[in-house]
Design goal:
With 153 residues, the chain is an alpha+beta fold. The chain is 25% helix and 26% strand.
Length: 153
């Protein structure tokens, strides 16, 4: 388990360091990365170093229904180190997106926010006793244990 202190919420860090960009999304477009580059980004992010991860197992207990990861990777266009937030669900009508930034603190804040928001307002079906009680109750695996109210906006 890693201990990460995010001093400011992600939106304040974004004001200081710039907004995260959407690299890929389940919608048909990404304003930052042309679709013809998605495979290169997907490959590099999948092969990157996972720094933090939260997830919910599927009913079979073997696969994941939802995963939120913070990944350090090499951007294929510039060959520089960047940090990505990967969010994906494997459910009917599921969604997925990847946002990234060159400043880890910004993506750390986005990760904490995404994990807490998902725990409060699930995008996948969950047992009622696991919803609204914070990340530790909602996820099967998580490294976020703070109160969700700190992250809701």
């Amino acid at each position: 388990m890693s201990v990460v202190l995010t001093v400011k919420p992600w939106w304040e860090l974004a004001e200081q360091y710039g907004e995260p960009r959407t690299v890929m999304a389940h919608n048909l477009y990404s304003p930052s990365v042309p679709r013809e580059q998605h495979e290169a980004y997907a490959f590099n992010i999948a092969g990157g170093k996972v720094l933090r991860e939260s997830g919910v197992r599927a009913a079979d207990g073997k696969t994941w229904a939802l995963t939120i990861r913070l990944v350090e990777y090499i951007e294929p266009a510039t060959l520089r180190t960047r940090y990505a937030l990967e969010f994906w669900t494997v459910t009917p009508g599921g969604k997925w997106y990847v946002a990234d930034h060159d400043t880890r603190a910004v993506i750390e804040g986005v990760y904490e926010h995404a994990v807490c928001i998902e725990a409060e307002r699930p995008s996948i079906p969950r047992d009622a006793e696991r919803v609204g009680r914070g990340p530790a109750a909602y996820y099967d695996v998580t490294d976020v244990h703070g109160p969700a109210a700190d992250y809701l906006v």
